[in-house]
Design a protein that fits this description.
Order of helices and strands: HEEEHHHH
Number of strands: 3
Helix content: 40-55%
Distance between the termini: 36 Å
Oligomer: single chain
Radius of gyration: 22 Å
Number of domains: 2
Shape: elongated
Length: 170
């Protein structure tokens, strides 16, 4: 049997009665205990207030047109970006004895899965950071593969050369 042990409650007002009701339902009816050290109440109407949930960061941001209205901004959290960078570092490594096409295939598999999960909300800034990181890792790999200029890309730029060989850009 599986349980969903992470959840978020969104309400305009969180008072004592709502807290008692939640503790009653979770404790008595479901037989679960609430971890008080991880439980917190966040008022998203405050400036720079946000919370992370299932790899996403949720916060209210001002409209780009300068109007006083705000919108709920959802984007990949810093922790999920860091774990993706660690996984890409292990895949694009100098010591690994894989061909360029095999490495690109493995990187594409990682990026495709990550982008399918995080293609919700407004992930454009995070996707650009990931693209930049992947290009930097490949350029470091090419510099270390040989003392001469990289012959893997046939004199093309890194961006176009990797794109021609099938690297997925988010």
């Amino acid at each position: 049997m599986r349980y969903a042990d992470d959840f978020v409650i969104l309400a305009r007002y969180i008072g004592v009665s709502l807290k008692l009701y939640i503790e009653h339902v979770i404790g008595n009816e479901l037989g679960l205990t609430i971890n008080q050290s991880k439980t917190r109440i966040v008022d998203l109407r405050e400036d720079k207030a946000s919370f992370d949930f299932l790899g996403f960061t949720f916060r209210f941001d001002r409209d780009i047109y300068g109007t006083p209205s705000k919108y709920l901004n959802v984007f990949p959290s810093n922790k999920s970006l860091a774990s993706l960078r660690d996984e890409l570092r292990q895949t694009i490594k100098v010591g690994r004895k894989m061909s360029l096409m095999v490495t690109i295939g493995k990187v594409n598999t990682i990026l495709r899965g990550w982008s399918n999960y995080f293609n919700f909300g407004y992930p454009r800034v995070a996707f650009r950071k990931v693209n930049y990181f992947v290009r930097q890792r490949f350029s470091c790999l090419f510099r270390r593969m040989s003392q001469r200029r990289c012959t893997q890309l046939d004199g093309d730029t890194y961006y176009n050369g990797l794109k021609k060989r099938g690297l997925l850009y988010l």
